[in-house]
Each structure stands twice: as structure tokens, then as C-alpha cells.
Amino acid sequence: MSERDDTMKEKRVVFVTVGTTCFDALVRAVDTPEVKNELFKKGYTDILIQMGRGSYIPTRLTAENGSPALDYFTFSSSIADYLKSASLVISHAGSGSIFETLRLGKPLIVVVNEDLMDNHQSELAEELADRKHLYCARPQTLYNTISDMNPGSLVPYQPGDAKPVAKLINRYLGFAED
Known about the structure:
Elements: H1 3-8, E1 13-17, H2 24-30, H3 33-41, E2 46-50, E3 69-73, H4 80-85, E4 88-91, H5 95-103, E5 108-111, H6 120-130, E6 135-137, H7 142-148, H8 163-173
Parallel strand pairs: 1-2, 1-4, 2-3, 4-5, 5-6
Helix pairs in contact: 3-7
């Protein structure tokens, strides 16, 4: 393959976000050769990890045979552009990250942080996975989830309509209807 062919190859980015917390187990799982190789086999060319407060530093890589390029950063004032340019998002189970990704129509794997106390986030991720809007994994099952996933089988998320609830509240409070 010529150099020109390599530069014209479509870039397919996996964006990994842990939010503002420490979720080293997720960063470690993504940084394993098995996960990187499986992502490459699925056609992903680059991995970008937002690692938050974590202490585990992943291995930066340039694209090689059998492995995508990997880079990382700690924080950004906004991850919106990263989400928009991603071909696949692997995220912690925070509701903001989940719903922002789903609204963009991006394939999403939510990885639950089992180290959190009273982990209500797993309930949200599991419910949305049951509805086929996303895939739900744990750090130790991430490889299998990636291996088994078929992004085309996901059902697009349709946000609910809040207008009926707002009308009911307005009527209850005595505000004039539109």
C-alpha cells in the first residue's frame, strides 16, 4: 500500500471518557493489547482517552500493524467535539456522558465503575442496554463486549417529550395555558 493510500484511509476514532473521576480500571482495560487489537480488527484507527484524575498512564502509540494509535489527556473544558468526531464512544456510566452521546447517535459502550458506593449509574446503563440503545460492560468484560458488538443493531435513542409534564405543572400552579 502506498503512503498516499494510508493518508486517505478514513480515520475511525474511539473516544474513551472517564469524566472527572478516577476510573483507572477502564483506562487499563482499554490499554490492553487484546482490546486494542480487537478495536483495530473492527476497523478503528485511533483511540483517544480522557483519563480524568486517574493515576494509570496508558501507553501512547502510533498506528502499527494490528493496533490503533493511542493518545490521552486528563481534562478538557468540553468533550462535545471529541464525542462528535468519534466513531465509537466508551464511557463511564455518568448520565450526562451517556445522554450526550446517545443524542449524537454514536455507538456507545458504557463501562460501570464497580468501585463506586451505591452505584445507581449501573441501573441506568443496564436499563438502556436492555432497550438496545447501548452496550453495558464492566472493565473485565470490555474485551468480550467489543468482540461481540454490532453497532448496527443498536436502537436510536429518542428523548422523551417534556411538554405534557410542563403543561400539567403549569396548570397545577395556576399559570395560563399557551
